[in-house]
Write the structure tokens for this entry.
Amino acid sequence: MNKMEKESGIKIPMDVKNGKNTDLLTKFPLLKRILKARSFQFIIILPNLFVFYVIILAGIIGSPVGNRNIAIVFIWILWWFLLIAIMVPFASRVWCTMCPLPFFGDLFQRMAFIKVRLGKTAYLRNKMFGLNKKWPKYLTNIWIQNIGFLTLCTFSAVLVTRPFVTSIVLGLMLLLGTVMSMIWKLRSFCSYICPVSGFLSLYSSAATMELRRIDNDVCLKCKDKGCYKGNEKGYGCPWSEYMGTMERNNYCGLCTECLKTCPNDNIGLNTRSFASETIIKGYDESWKGFIMLALAMAYSVILLGTNGTIKNWANAPETGNWGGFFIYAAILWSSALVVVPAVFYFFAYLSKLITKSTQSVKEIFKTFSYILVPLGLLAWIAFSFPLIFVNGSYIISVISDPLGWGWNLFGTAGFKWQPLVPDYLGYVQLILLLTGLGFAISRGYRVSLNIFKDEHTALMGLLPMAGFALLVTLAFLTFFIG
Ligand code: SF4
Ligand code: SF4
Ligand code: SF4
């Protein structure tokens, strides 16, 4: 039993512990050389920083019409789809590797784009600028991210249609990330505030890729601990993760620093099966799952559904129906924070009742909440497919006219809107939702074994949770397909 297992009381499946299918860095030495290069992250962030700048500018001075402005089309159609349907499920938090938001904060703390400064800053062996205050212990969780994300999403009808609002929000996040880096140590903004980080952390646990130490014993004997403390080759982990015991993807921002700092070349980039990391550590993570599930349902109704009244309520800044907006916000917040968790709690209670387990309902509730990961992630992917398939053609036209000013930079500005295979979308969504259900049940069984230990009791304990997953899937099918 390793440290993580002792802490959580949960047995980590063997395929997570040592069933690494392929170490991509061993298989592709060129990839290893690229990731180990000091300039790697800087080079990969730079073009994104430029696009980010254009997007913020476009939101402020460009066309207010959403589908003619790169701020809306690139962020809410292209980026969102790539993030949720490709990056997170296949490559964990790879977006954080290239995200431009912490760029200026990192630059301030390091006073260098690439260079490493040796020195002493708390436990780090790097010279870091700024106040480097410790983040308050009682806030070392993802509750702020949960509430921040829910708040942003409450205004999503405006956020995803008005370029100006998108720009302001992105600009504020950039500013906040930078200011926080001046006050608090390392990437406190990424770890505890960034609203995107919350769902990236939760869903990256399902990803088919992980960065991990290769040999436990090498880490145990390692005196340098460069991955955590930094050394002349690179910075100590900006996310305060210690590779020697890290067992989950959740809080590794894939910055690749530890690849550079590990003196024993003891870090691999492994492929693994989907949703193989089945551990939820705290209620903040459970609630992230509930919030994401409730939001996916709400968005399916608002953005893809035909109910005019709810759309009208959600879009109050445009319709002026603030009374309706408060009803909508109250329904959204109570569903995400109270109703869906309460329903799940009831099913967890049934699980305890059927199995006559000595485990508390709370523990069963928390541990089983992992099933929300495959269930929610696949529901979000199913939700996002229509966005890209129906509105993807805007990407081609907006590339030539990013501000909506009538330019035609690459000759594609006149590309007509044309939805892709709309007749087959329902089937794609059906397959995705059933895949989510399948993983929720199969991984739920693994979780159930961890709780109830013997196979028969585990199956009985799983039954109510499988019922919950089935109900959720049926609800999504009704929203998507009718
Ligand atoms: S946590 Fe947020 S700000 Fe930080 S790198 Fe990831 S997406 Fe960017
Ligand atoms: S520096 Fe390398 S060998 Fe040492 S603890 Fe970190 S990952 Fe393990
Ligand atoms: S463990 Fe830390 S240093 Fe290593 S890639 Fe993840 S965030 Fe970066």
